[in-house]
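Take a record:
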Amino acid sequence: MQDLWLKLEESSKKLGTHNQKYILTISKYKDELLSALERHDSLDKIHFWNLRDFSDDMDTIVDVGRNLEEKLNFLGCYYAIQFLNMNLKAVDALSMELVTSKENQRPAIYKAFMRKAGKKFRSLTASYMNTLLYLLMEGEEMPEFAICGVGARADQDDIDVGIITRERDVSKNFGLAISKLNKQMI
């Protein structure tokens, strides 16, 4: 498995230096995360190399963390791994399609690529944000809310969201959890 981690780190270099923060997060917490998963006989439940239902993996990761800080670190590590995997697979798939395509087919290929990559990105990010919010609000009543993407779909260097609630008096703790969520995402 060590070769897979090294391959991920090496392959991520082609994504650019702005992705170095993900490599640093992975290298800082990966060994602790793997040890915790092994201690709980849960390593085989996590799908590091397949993009699938991220929520199930994140729930398992929360279960193996001993305290809030460890859970947040493990979730951040998992997110970083999946984010890099997702981008590497998307770039590889795009490269393969472009090699076999004709020049006049490329605009449609790029459009499909952006939609598919955006959908996967939103799925990963939504799972991460949802897991973080419930973790940060643990023991508190969660108000009804919706988080909506309000930024341009093609602009994925940041995430612009709006939060809609039905209640006028959202608890102070929910506001604090949103603030902590923002900090954790950065």
